[in-house]
Amino acid sequence: MPAERKLFIKTYGCQMNVYDSERMAEALGGSGYVVTDDAEEADMILLNTCHIREKAAEKMYSELGRLRGLKDANPDLRIGVAGCVAQAEGQEILRRQPLVDLVVGPQSYHRLPQMEARVRGGERALDTDFPDEDKFDHLAARPRARRGPGAFLTVQEGCDKFCAFCVVPYTRGAEVSRPAARVLSEARDLVERGVREITLLGQNVNAYHGDGTGGEWSLARLIRELARIDGLDRIRYTTSHPNDMDDDLIAAHGEVAELMPYLHLPVQSGSDRVLKAMNRKHTADSYLRLIGRIRAARPDILISGDFIVGFPGETESDFADTLALVGAVEYGQCYSFKYSTRPGTPAAERPQVEEPVKDDRLRRLQALLRDQQHAVQRRMVGQEVGVLFDKPGREPGQMVGKSDHLHSVFVFVAGDGVARGDLRRVRITASAPNSLAGTLV
Ligand code: 5AD
Ligand code: SF4
Fold first, then answer.
1. pTM for the whole thing?
2. 262 Cβ closer than 6 Å to some ligand 1 atom
3. What is the CATH number for 212?
């Protein structure tokens, strides 16, 4: 048995990185590592980076700079960079930052134990291949520890859409779906370990088309099969592209009780001119009609989305179209970003919108989205929802969990015997800026 070592992982960006960080921790578990949340006691620090926006690489270099003191204090400390910045920068990281021992791209995490052994021996290790073997397969032999009630499960990676602003097709590569049988067995394993809610992940999750019995399975088919697993009470998926919302998936929202009434469906802009320049291959109107069909299937569904303001060429009138689309949709929750140039993507070469204009548009859009979010939350007051309890709340006797619609709900449960992992009916009594309060029914 190898000596116990401490592993600290800092995760940036999306939920897929959260999942990947868990997989990396499991892979290194076999080399004797246990996870710590204290970087100071770590024998290995991994930064799991995100490259989607802002000056990701610069941020990572300054974060690495801050680790110097720890390395000085503990010469045995090993430092690694994982994720999409590792993929994009590769060798450059080793060249620029002598502190770094290991660079590993998102497709190579299953090789971490071998890489770890090399860096322990004093070498530096780099792996940013897109190997043929399935990294998930190699990661399957993991310790079967008990889990919290919610888990992520990556079913698809990469993207073939090439939106003009996005680096994902370059960092994560072509779209690949995991075979359905693997997903199902991983889901069963999670449920046996205490998980009741699974969020299926993929950069383009609704483009899922994994091998299954009788041919390729769609995401809808996969969800219908997952819903049959005893003890799996809730299913979600993220992130989706409007053009991949097929009829069966829409129907599943009305038919599969376990499929939660929440959908993250980014549109990015409400201007057809901008959407075309973004290479989105849908229009504002086709998106609105799609939302109408989804709501017809599941009237209480909460819609969430992503927006980019200040995309190259976006005029004030284009931006007004975005505000109009937001008004028509009524989002329950949304993410919005200023366009940021990603080297190597088509839009990076185009004339850019000035920063103050972007700032102003982002402020106006976020004010509107915030109002909508609050309006949707206030409408929840008086309604009864399911809440999957996850952890203690801010005050004694309080627990917090996620509602069916993915709201955080605070509930006083003292004396009611509610434990982590319990799914209970709750009546919503109040709405706060980013959460709800309720009472057990
Ligand atoms: N600039 C700003 N936002 C971006 N996103 C992706 N690329 C960029 C970029 N270059 C946003 C999109 C996407 C979300 C994950 O990040 O809105 O849906
Ligand atoms: Fe990026 Fe567009 Fe693919 Fe989403 S669909 S990952 S925004 S290229």
1. 0.89
2. no
3. 3.30.750.210
